Amino acid sequence: MSSSGARRRAASVPDSNTDREPAVVLKKEIGLLSACGIIVGNIIGSGIFVSPKGVLENASSVGLALIVWTLTGVITAVSALCYAELGVTIPKSGGDYSYVKDIFGGLAGFLRLWTAVLMIYPTNQAVIALTFANYALQPLFPSCFPPERALGLLAAVCLLLLTWINCFSVRWATRVQDVFTTGKLLALGLIIIMGIVQICKGHYYWLEPEHAFHPVQPYDMGRIALAFLQGSFAYSGWNFLNYVTEELIDPYRNLPRAIFISIPLVTFVYVFVNIAYVTAMSPQELLASNAVAVTFGEKLLGVMSWIMPISVALSTFGGVNGSLFTSSRLFFAGAREGHLPSLLAMIHVNRCTPIPALLFSCISTLLMLCTSDIYTLINYVGFINYLFYGVTVAGQIVLRIKKPDIHRPIKVSLAWPVIFLIFWAFLLIFSLYSEPVVCGIGLAIMLSGVPVYLFGVYWENKPKTFSSLVAKLTHLGQNLCMVVRPAEDRDEDKEEAGKVQVH
Question: Which candidate, 110, 61, 80, places its Cα nearest to that of 452?
Answer without folding.
Answer: 110
